[in-house]
Predict the structure.
Amino acid sequence: MRIRPVYAVLEREIVRMVRQRTRLVAAMVRPLIWLLVIGGGFAAFIGEARGVDYKSFLVPGVLGMTMLFGAMLAALSTVYDKESGVMRMMLIAPMPHAWIVVAKVVSAAAAALLQAILLLVLLVALGYAGRGTEWGLLAAALAATSLACAGIGMLTAAFSRSLDNFAGIMNFVIFPVFFLSGSLYPVRDLPPALGWIATANPYTYGVDLLKHALLPGAGSADFGIGLDLAVLGLATAVTVAVASWRFSRESAYEPMIHVLANRAQ
Amino acid sequence: MNAPRAAGVDTRAAIRATGLGKRYADLLAVDGLDIEISSGEFFGLLGPNGSGKTTTLHMLATLIRPSTGSATVAGFDVVREPVSVRAAIGLVFQESALDRTLSVAENLRFAGLLHDLPLRVIGERQRELLELFGLADRRDSPVAALSGGMRRALDIVRGVLHEPRVLFLDEPTIGLDLPNRRRIWRFIERLRARTGMTVLLTTHYLEEADGCDRVAFIRQGRLVESGAPRTWVERLGRHMLEVEGPALDGLAAALEAKLGAGLREGDVAYFRCRDEDVAAIARLQAEMGSRASAWRVRRPNLNDVFLWVAAGKALD
């Protein structure tokens, strides 16, 4: 497969991210608010969760949150691309249309990864991470989680027609994925119904892997490292496959072309 | 692109469509089109809005799958070898295919990389083409800051950056004012002179189609006429009689009796006439001219052909 087109999409994603300063600042501030304000508040009366003080328990969750939001928003920019001219540029490029999906997922994951690394630097500086961290495992967790989040985002984008339902996607995809994971509470302490949903949520396994890496041996994780990696890998493969299938069908972009062709009728 | 071609390749059709059709659930957009366009030809596809021009172009560019028939572009099948087709063609859409958030140079870098061009080649061609299209001093401007004419020019640069063998232009000057339309045409002429690429154009500005080697007229998804623009005009007739007036019905009926069916557009009626009709027309004007507010005999042009064919009338 040709690598230059993937690089083109990746470079554009990073250039756009760096230029949109507010998006980058928000990606840092949002998790810090959760950690310091909400985490601080709950820590005052919960004390600890699964043997870890609540703020430390939240650190993997907020790191995951940066990737979830970063990757989802970057992947969802595909919907914006469909409405602007950018999708036309990609559609007429000499590569299979499914390759656009792969390029977008890789780019969204890379953007999310960069944001996560920036936040990690802040967390280390603030003393919330770094002691006892298993760095190799953390690197794997960041990569696997950002790819899975980008895949979920791309799947959502492939089935979205316009930016109008962006707020709907925020409320019905991103927030539930975040809240119904182990980010804010241990999965095994959830009521059964919510526990099942969290267990079925692939993002839960990303946060779980981050817990293994950031709080090794603390017992705050719910699943094994092998299971976490397997679920994340499977989620990435399935979402990319379905999004590519959807995208290769011209119906995914034909409405745009159809509208253009018949605009003046 | 100007790599030496195998002998005989130039005589092969750049575009060949056989029975090409597209049906949407409720709409037969294109109905069994047969077109053959030679390598290096400048071909115009004319037709009113919604006649199926853009759908045809998008089928040839592999963006829409044909419902019936088949087509090859640059020797590749549009359904079985879409990636090879896309590598051989350039496409300028009706609406701009640029990223407004990036600069001129960044857009071309993005488009070039998508076409798998090395950065060095992108840099060289970008310099050359921006010079040719009068955009050399706008390299670092954001696309959002360009005028409509400049954006269109950049869109064409984007479409030819990879030196395609076949260039599709879908209404390239739509929405532009006259000076900008002329500029775009000068650019396209220079480009054709330099590269000899095959160009398939859709337009409804008839004076633009005058420069085509051959034009085809498409109406309600069917190809109704094709030929060189000049022979078309000749086929329509030697003269056009144009009569204008508020109460034309009686006059038009009288003229139709002498000259055959004409074309009515509100207060204007057109009739075509042969050389031998001219004397009769003069007599008719003496008889009935007072009933019209204007009475003109002139040479027909491509606009007349367009209106004639669009109204579903035979040319001969």
Notes: Chain A has one domain: 4-262. The interface with chain B takes residues 2, 4-5, 7-9, 11-12, 15-16, 19, 84-86, 88-96, 250, 253-254, 257-258, 260-265 of chain A (CB under 8 Å). The longest helix of chain A spans residues 54-83.
